[in-house]
Amino acid sequence: MARVNALDLSKITLRPLQQGDWPRIHEWASLEESCRYQPWGPNTEAETEAFVSAAIASARVDPRTRFAWVATHPVTGVLGIGELNIRHAAWKRGEISYSVHPDHWGQGVASEIARILLQFGFEDRQLERIEATCDPRNSASAAVLKRIGMTYEGILRRTVLIRTGWRDSKMHSMIRPEWNPPTPITSPRWTLA
């Protein structure tokens, strides 16, 4: 796939998914290279449409525990997705995840999406701990988690069933005292509605 020119990462924002986003998301959700470490995909069109529909519906659940967005840039439009899921409300624990169109791999886009998710989790949702996992073979995702300041905690064994069998997960986390917001703090780069 052809890579695009470097983007101004400070212009990436997260907005709620809209049903019309599914064709753009499907561009990478249908690719083997994009989902080789995931329990989903390569998606059919119906599966990608269903993912977007479920994400939209999750915004109406009360209490809300899933915050799913598309990452957009004024030059490229939709270039990725990001989620924060509240895993335990009373203990203020959440988990982030992200996926980026391969045209934007290696440009800092995933790191920027993850940073925005951390900011939302710590500042808007007042979480105490945010986790993220990745397949041990996915060195690019592990590098993203390290780059954004998450601490590697170890391997969780046989946590996810993917097409090639059971896989382990590298566990990373950040706790509130470690959160170092971007300087200067800018207005939120996400919208909820």
UniProtKB/TrEMBL annotation:
<dbReference type="InterPro" id="IPR016181">
    <property type="entry name" value="Acyl_CoA_acyltransferase"/>
</dbReference>
<feature type="domain" description="N-acetyltransferase">
    <location>
        <begin position="12"/>
        <end position="173"/>
    </location>
</feature>
<dbReference type="InterPro" id="IPR051908">
    <property type="entry name" value="Ribosomal_N-acetyltransferase"/>
</dbReference>
<protein>
    <submittedName>
        <fullName>GNAT family protein</fullName>
    </submittedName>
</protein>
<dbReference type="InterPro" id="IPR000182">
    <property type="entry name" value="GNAT_dom"/>
</dbReference>
<dbReference type="Pfam" id="PF13302">
    <property type="entry name" value="Acetyltransf_3"/>
</dbReference>
